[in-house]
Amino acid sequence: MITSNETESDGINQTEVESESDDLPYLASSTIHYDSSCSCLYIIGGIMKSGEISNSVYKLKLELNENIILNVEKIQIPIRIYGHASIMDKDKIILVGGISDFDHNDDFVFTFDLLTNELIIERIEIGNCMLLMHGHQIHGNREKIKILGGGNNCFSFGSHFNSLLTTLTKET
Prior knowledge:
Layout: E1 18-19, E2 31-35, E3 40-44, E4 56-63, E5 68-76, E6 81-82, E7 85-89, E8 92-96, E9 99-100, E10 108-113, E11 119-123, E12 137-140, E13 144-148, E14 151-154, E15 158-161, E16 165-169
Parallel strand pairs: 1-5
Antiparallel strand pairs: 2-3, 3-4, 4-5, 6-9, 7-8, 8-10, 10-11, 12-13, 13-16, 14-15
């Protein structure tokens, strides 16, 4: 049997988590990663309560045994993004696809450096295939990213579905 435990749809239910900050993010269409080396939870992008696309990375310092958020740090990045997929590789979070205000978003990989808080933008050289990075999952690291599925379904312009598996390889 599977049971569910719903929380408030507008973010972390503050009755379940004690916090010294009221600046908790809205979690719709964002990605999250937990770094056990520093007990930090990173929340990247998403849609805010106002409907605007977030251009923030939230770093929440956690005390897991006590369900307490010790600190919330909000880091601005130069793009607004949601609906993306991401992976954490050592001190970097790699963002692939989604919807953003960056021109031709599907042709780029964004890498957020956790040590410098910089966003590195790298172009994907796409061969004969067309990639639509919506509704996809990713796995891998900075050197090789495997994209599973994805595509786009549009009632006006038709649908396009990616190959089942696409691999992006970073040339050194």
